[in-house]
Amino acid sequence: MSEHQQTETNESTVDQTSEKLVELAKRRGYFFQSSGSYGSVGGFYTFGPQGAALKGNVEDAWRDRFALAEGNMEIDAPTIMPEPVFEASGHLEGFDDMLIECPECGTSSRADHLVEDNTMYEDAESLEIPEVEEVIAEYELVCPDCGAGLAGVAVEDFNLMFATNIGPGDSQPGYLRPETAQGIFVEFPRLKEYARNQLPFGVTQIGRAYRNEISPRRSIIRTREFTQAELEYFIDPEEDEPDLSAVEDVEVTLYPATEQNDEDGDEIETTIGEAVDNDVIASPWVAYFLGVAKPWYEAVGVDMDRFRFRQHLSGERAHYASDCWDAESEIDGNWIEMAGFAYRGDYDLSKHSEHSGDRFTVFKQYDEPKTVERATVDPDMSYLGPEFGGDAGAVVEELEALAARDRAAFEGETVEFELEGETHEIPVEKTGFAVEEQTESGEHIIPHVVEPSFGVDRLVYTVLHHAYQEDEVDGEERTYLELEPEVAPTFVGVFPLQSDDALETQAGEIVDDLREAGLSVTYDDSGNIGRRYRRQDEVGTPFCVTIDYETVEADETTVTVRERDTTDQKRIPVDELAETLSAIREGDLEFEEL
RNA sequence: GCGCGGAUGGUCUAGUGGUAGGACCUGAGCCUUCCAAGCUCAUGGCCCGGGUUCAAAUCCCGGUCCGCGCACCA
Question: Domain of life, per the record (predicted)?
């Protein structure tokens, strides 16, 4: 967390909210640390019954908006992939740093760089860690920051990927994916077929990713296993434009890099359309997805007063991203990253293309076929074969390359070319050299990628934190979660007013009806009615239905429906109950309208 | 990974070198005609491993985990 992400807030009150939320989450089944019976390990959390349902609802909402509503394809790739995938993606090298921390001042340095800069060793990265430690001791290397001696200080290997072996033995190393994105990129050659080779198209994936964090912190904000919802949107950089008209009026709070670098800088309130016109957001594609994301975040329950988009500073951006914005929410006075929107260019597909040898391109047809002159060769193999033996194939490749780059070489009686450092000369007539007119109907291009990448766990945490409320009802303190009906894990509680066979029987029938209507229902007949309301308030259940004597005795049977936030009650006929509640769940009806 | 602080039923907590008490929760029952009411009973705990000691939940060491700061976050 860097300094510009901090804001001044009253810590004593905000800390209480977080502590209370974590306590509530444990007690009410939202989330808790895993494997507690075995002492737990850091950074692993289990979502309990409520948490799993909430997370599932958030994922469904994401799927509706970013896959279905956008016409994108969803896939589900493995979490373990073989080593070459991560060689290509750059994760293997990027993760494998040797770090040494100064015991005096705490500064971390690249141990291999330290050795290379101060000794005769030129490729320290190839040394094993004990060797590097020996060299540091031998040369009495010191901390570059404060000058303290580093001899005897342990060198740490920082690879944030979890390694494993695929199959028996260690001949096939693999890694748990550190981001879901690679599972999409590696399958691009097939995915583009499913898109009928038409750009633009998008592929989404919701799944787990794994990073062996040095220091997991702050409950589910930073864990070692977490859920991402990612969209990789593939575009033709020269032709494809987003439909900004759909999002241009969306109001956003932006915190551009220029404002962050300015001492007096501040967040700016604007619209997506204006931000693009004024070049605040460089990529219209990134702007488009910011415009889609903002109302979506609001719909699942993020408090828009504690939400912003922050541009990455130039030093903060990954090497492949030309522009990157984060969606951030404020928790305890700190801004936490909930999503990143990056323009990744052709970095990923190019890398996989190079490393795999497969084609990570899309054929782009020209409007009009082009006619081009092209120099070609069609060598006489009955001559080259006897002449060059096993090298004949290489000769053909060399002649093809030569024809493409220097057709003048073929203008004489003979042509000269080099093969493995030796110059050869053969008659041009044996090469089948010709300049022909060819028709090209298109070209293979590497699409660019726009990547909205969401952290589901951090979003769930934010939704819970922003939903946490305390108030008073009839002089009694109350805690409740103001969760949106769309994502609330339990939608309705059903209670008989008191212990009574008639009430309980009727309540049971209503539970069945509501479940049949597809609602998440909980039944509770314990203790008095007030306690049951409070219990549901605390898990964030938006509505409670109570069956009383009017329900079982009156001619027209009705129940009371109580709304969580206001505790207001209305009487609803039993036979309209399922329909009414379903309409509220779908957002087609408000409780106030009843 | 380093530094500081911490770890007692499901949750929150009191406590002492002689194996623990409360509150809430939960369950059973009574009572109860709409917001954590009352009464009775019940379930359930000293993070793990070593050491010191007649005796360790308590003291010491190590580990695990949590919080905060530093570092890290491709």
Answer: Archaea
